[in-house]
Design brief:
Blueprint: H1 2-11, H2 14-37, E1 44-45, H3 50-54, H4 62-66, H5 68-71, H6 74-78, H7 82-105, E2 108-109, H8 121-129, H9 139-157, H10 162-181, H11 187-203, H12 205-208
Parallel strand pairs: 1-2
Helix pairs in contact: 2-7, 7-9, 7-11, 9-10, 9-11
């Protein structure tokens, strides 16, 4: 039964998963913020598209944006097979490294906004911590896409009901949308993230055929 399989995943390799997820996120942020402050060249401004002008600033999307750090933990938490767990970790680490290398050799930023961030304290805090650099490709979008695809592959393999797969899809799409709605990224950043995730998924295509 699909629910029992998920419960088994939740109870397997708990220490490894806890330490691994914490270590991965910590190391990623250390590298991310270092590169943000020490790029190799001056940042290129990513232009706006007509879609950016259609999507208004929506500060209420911030909780969805931040929920990525819960979403990213779902695949490793429900994976039961140790080899599969290592494969997931290796490929998401590779994707992050590729993104960080791009940020270093081709730093990018989103255009300066006319929004008064002081009127939106939560977003203003995010902006003060995570500047508008390291924009393209959006690793927020890439990570959400990659983890969403893995979660769906696992759900299909264990024959989970369609409603839980739809929830996973809606959550992932909402996170991608929130990157633009919070003005942390522009549409071209999101497209870059989708491409990066797509290329990474190709390396694990056997997982998604099951």
């Amino acid at each position: 039964m699909w629910l029992q399989t998920i419960k088994t995943g939740l109870c397997s390799h708990i220490l490894l998963k806890s330490v691994g997820i914490t270590l991965f996120i910590s190391l990623f942020f250390i590298a991310y913020f270092y590169i943000l402050k020490h790029p190799a060249y001056q940042a290129t401004i990513i232009p706006l598209t007509f879609l950016d002008r259609l999507i208004s600033f929506q500060p209420a999307a911030l909780p969805i944006y931040l929920s990525l750090w819960i979403y990213v933990a779902i695949p490793p938490i429900i994976i039961t097979n140790l080899i599969e767990l290592y494969r997931f970790a290796l490929l998401i680490a590779l994707m992050a490294i590729v993104g960080l290398v791009i940020f270093y050799v081709w730093p990018t930023a989103i255009p300066v906004s006319e929004i008064d961030w002081a009127q939106h304290p939560s977003i203003n805090f995010l902006k003060s911590v995570d500047a508008a650099g390291n924009a393209c490709p959006s690793l927020h979008v890439a990570t959400a896409t990659y983890c969403g695809a893995w979660t769906d592959a696992i759900f299909r393999r264990i024959k989970a009901p369609i409603w839980i797969r739809l929830i996973n899809l809606a959550w992932g799409v909402s996170i991608i949308y929130s990157t633009i709605a919070t003005h942390q990224h522009v549409v071209l950043d999101a497209v870059g993230g989708l491409v990066l995730a797509g290329l990474t998924i190709l390396l694990t295509r056997s997982e998604f055929r099951q």
